[in-house]
């Protein structure tokens, strides 16, 4: 499975999945298939693996997540996919580097990670209070204009 992922054999990955192959199998450095999809930049295989519930937050012996590897290898489409699925842009590897620090300065990947980080930092942790309407018309039709009650 790892070999098929690394060498971008999409149809072989689909076949192996259909036959029950383990998508979270690890190599000698504890990389799973998703790490190799990020390394090779094959977003099609990455999507297949994520749809099959592959662990997006898995780290290897260096503490690198698939997002770290995609950032380091400048794999923009994989970075966007991982961020859209909730990958942690603030996660540090064993060297103390975040995916942003692994990327090339001012590259498209760096800009994307920087924007994501900035948006997450500026967003409130709790969503704002939302008004709830108790009744759409407390006048029960006796008035020409309905009176909503919040």
UniProtKB/TrEMBL annotation:
Protein name in the entry: Uncharacterized protein
Top-rank taxon: Eukaryota
Example GO molecular function: p53 binding
ANK repeats: 1-28, 62-94
Protein's GO biological process: negative regulation of transcription by RNA polymerase II
Taxonomic source organism: Micrurus corallinus (Brazilian coral snake)
Keyword check for Nuclease: no
This protein's GO CC annotations: chromatin; nucleus
Nucleus listed as a keyword: no
Pfam families: Ank, Ank_2
Keywords: ANK repeat
């Amino acid at each position: 499975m790892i070999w098929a992922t690394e060498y971008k054999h999409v149809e072989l990955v689909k076949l192996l999945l259909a036959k029950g192959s383990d998508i979270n199998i690890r190599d000698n450095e504890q990389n799973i298939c998703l790490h190799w999809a990020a390394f090779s930049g094959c977003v099609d295989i990455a999507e297949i693996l994520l749809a099959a519930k592959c662990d997006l937050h898995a780290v290897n012996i260096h503490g690198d997540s698939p997002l770290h590897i995609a950032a380091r290898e400048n794999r923009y489409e994989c970075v966007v996919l991982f961020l859209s699925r909730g990958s942690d842009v603030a996660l540090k590897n064993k060297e103390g580097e975040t995916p942003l620090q692994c990327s090339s300065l001012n590259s498209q990947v760096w800009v994307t990670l920087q924007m994501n980080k900035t948006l997450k930092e500026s967003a409130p942790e709790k969503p704002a209070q939302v008004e709830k309407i108790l009744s759409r018309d407390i006048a029960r039709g006796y008035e020409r204009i309905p009176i909503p009650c919040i």
